[in-house]
Amino acid sequence: MTERTTILIVDDESKIRRLLSRSLETEGFDVAVADSAMSASEFLKNGHCDLIILDYMMPEIDGMAFLAELRKKSSIPVIMLSAREEIAKKTQALELGADDYVVKPFSPRELVARVRAVLNRTMPRRGLLRHHDLRGPDHRHRQPTPCGWPGRMWP
Q1: The whole model's pTM is what?
Q2: Could you tell me the pLDDT band of residue 2, with boundaries at 50, 70 and 90?
């Protein structure tokens, strides 16, 4: 049995947490939620997640400060969510170590696709690609690919 991927959603807006939880659970992910950076820190002390979706603007500790602290001790992939679309803010988040930056309002379908893309880049051996992904086999080294062993691509 394969281990399921856990996504931690950190956002002070309950509507966003519910929307993302539903979308990600429908796609087969396990979801944990936190309504603040402090709650997320507590979760990470005892729990595990494979990716964090992190809101930029939260009370007390904002997403940027949380990200900066997280990067001192962890390389968990992070996708920033924000209503701020200024290039300077996007650049700051990416330079602090965010793996992607999504501006609100967003399409849940697009965000799920971005989650998969980040996970495929950061955890390629977990088999997160689906059977219909079009990644060709590597015939040169006869190594397994995320889609299986080298061989015919089409039935």
Answers
A1: 0.78
A2: low
